[in-house]
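Quick start: read one record
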Amino acid sequence: MTAEVAIVNRHAIALAADSAVTVGRERVWKYANKLFSLGPHNDIGVMIYNSADFVGIPWETIVKEFRRHCADTHFITVSDAAVHFIDFIKSNRFKNDKEEFESFARLIVNITYEIESAVKFKTYKEFNTNLEKYITDAMAAITKTPADFSFDRGTFVSTFKQAVKGICKEAFKHKPNEQLNTKLCEYMFEWISRKKISEFSSGIVFAGYGREEFLPAVLRYEVDGRALACVRVWERQSLNYNLVPGRQADTGGAIIPFAQSDMLQLFMEGISGNYLRYLRKAIRELLKKKSEAMVDAFVSDVKARPAEKTKQEAENKVINDELFAEFSKYRNKSLIEQTLKTVNSLPKEEMAAMAEALVELTALRRKLGPTLESVGGPVDVAIISKGDGFIWIKRKHYFKAETNLDFSIRKNLATKGVSP
């Protein structure tokens, strides 16, 4: 996992990323690179989070190869840069049958354990019955929306049927029969054909200014698997001030977290998501106990009590929803709006300091918490503005520049298109 943040106003974008990368479930290295510049010809930065590679190739290698590939290209918009990058990773240069098979196999693992946690049973007969019902219901729900990615159903089933059978054998206490195994394959085909995120996905953020853009843009993409000539990639939660009607009059500050965002919510709203969920559940239970006690005390007809309790529970839900809706409005007005109003007028130096502090805050919480320290290491920080372009504020290196002068020479020659 990781913690990254983009702080945006009309003047600039501040980007900050930690350096931790999780290997397996027990080890963390703290010197990964997740923030990159697209080179001197473009005022655009790229951040990577979650999975550190794509079909076996590190994202750092892919980003730097794309930067070399487009060394002399001036992207008109940030969206143009993103589209070219997506086309780049879809190209055959990254084709690898073994890695692609494993890429979709990981998605199958994700789906299988999602099903395993939902299907309850005691006997083998119950297992088959309940599993079939789950698949039927899930298939009916998922096919209500059209597929987002196109690849052949028959090819998928023939390619991954044995993998599905093996993964199910490991995940379930009982082995699904042949008919159920085929239905599982078909459901997994439908799942993978849509924009659904697994725990193995990678996030890619493009932020900055295109050649003809005067205001900042932050575009976020998910990349989650490649096989059968299909790359599962789609855009999410983008912020582009250049597309806002009225532009400068209507654009304010923004703080956008990526990957782990719990500490940013605590900072912005004064309360964590865990506490909010606990309060909602606790208040609901208290209202339920109070209502049931009142029904038992004041409804003399025993047969009428269940219906009255159901009515009271529905009313309690309305009360609880209204309470937390008002609480949300209060947090938004008294905390979030005030913070974003300040962010809108922050100078570049303060934006960089704030972005770094938010990542450091998450790292400190993970360091002191009971779970794996999945955020940490040096924080890379950059500022991107229309006038100055991509500027590193803090950047880690695994080598000393003064003892590697030939590195700068090689890079300068490569930029000019000369072989060193």
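The radius of gyration is 26 Å.
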